[in-house]
């Protein structure tokens, strides 16, 4: 992601709207139509504004203890009709439950807690994580 890790800062992604445009361009370049957006941790800064502004372009959304959930109101979340699987590790006592407090306002959500896993539940318990993810994907139309 631009501006994170070893990536150079990018002026384009300095605002939420810029991050929406960036993600839209990435999906367009990849030729993806109605993808399922999987968003762990820091990627929430990109995925959440995209979900709220362009959620109709997604077949599904899978936030994994994303950051930035408090930046939006319950009313904003209630407007989103994208099927969502809220996922986090049971040992993630900070970001997972914090994100759930906001994301539970999404009307079409399910919650899956990966047992004995921390913040990076997809690394701690990959089989349990993939079982939950694949179960969600199978239920999408």
Overview of the structural elements:
This protein is of the alpha/beta class. It has a single domain (about 35-140), classed as 3-Layer(aba) Sandwich (Rossmann fold), CATH 3.40.50. The chain is built from six helices and four strands, in the order H-E-H-E-H-E-H-E-H-H. A four-stranded parallel sheet has the order 1-2-3-4, sandwiched between helices. Strand 2, helix 3 and strand 3 (about 85-90) form a beta-alpha-beta unit. Helix 1 (about 15-30) crosses helix 2. Its main location: cytoplasm. It is found in: Cytoplasm. InterPro entries: AB_hydrolase_1, AB_hydrolase_fold. This is ABHEA protein.
Q: Which secondary structure elements does this structure contain, and how are they paired or packed?
A:
Layout (H helix, E strand, L loop, with lengths): L15 H14 L6 E5 L3 H11 L5 E5 L9 H5 L5 E6 L5 H9 L5 E6 L6 H4 L1 H14 L2
Parallel strand pairs: 1-2, 2-3, 3-4
Indicate the CATH topology.
Answer: Rossmann fold
Sequence of strands across the biggest β-sheet: 1-2-3-4
Round the mean pLDDT to the nearest integer and report it. 93
**Count of individual domains:** 1
Q: Roughly how many Å is the radius of gyration?
A: 14 Å
Sketch the major β-sheet: 4 strands, parallel
User: pLDDT under 50 segments (min length 5)?
Assistant: none
């Amino acid at each position: 992601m631009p501006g994170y890790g070893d990536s150079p800062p990018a002026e384009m992604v300095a605002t939420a709207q810029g991050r929406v445009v960036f993600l839209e361009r990435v999906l367009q370049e990849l030729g993806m139509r109605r993808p399922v957006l999987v968003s762990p941790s820091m990627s929430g800064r990109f995925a959440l504004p995209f979900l709220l502004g362009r959620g109709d372009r997604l077949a599904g959304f899978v936030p994994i203890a994303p950051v930035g959930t408090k930046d939006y109101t319950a009313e904003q979340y209630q407007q989103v009709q994208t099927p969502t699987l809220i996922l986090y590790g049971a040992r993630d006592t900070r970001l997972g439950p914090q994100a759930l407090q906001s994301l539970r306002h999404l009307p079409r959500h399910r919650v899956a807690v990966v047992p004995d896993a921390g913040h990076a539940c997809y690394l701690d318990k990959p089989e349990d994580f993939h079982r939950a993810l694949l179960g969600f994907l199978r239920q999408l139309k």
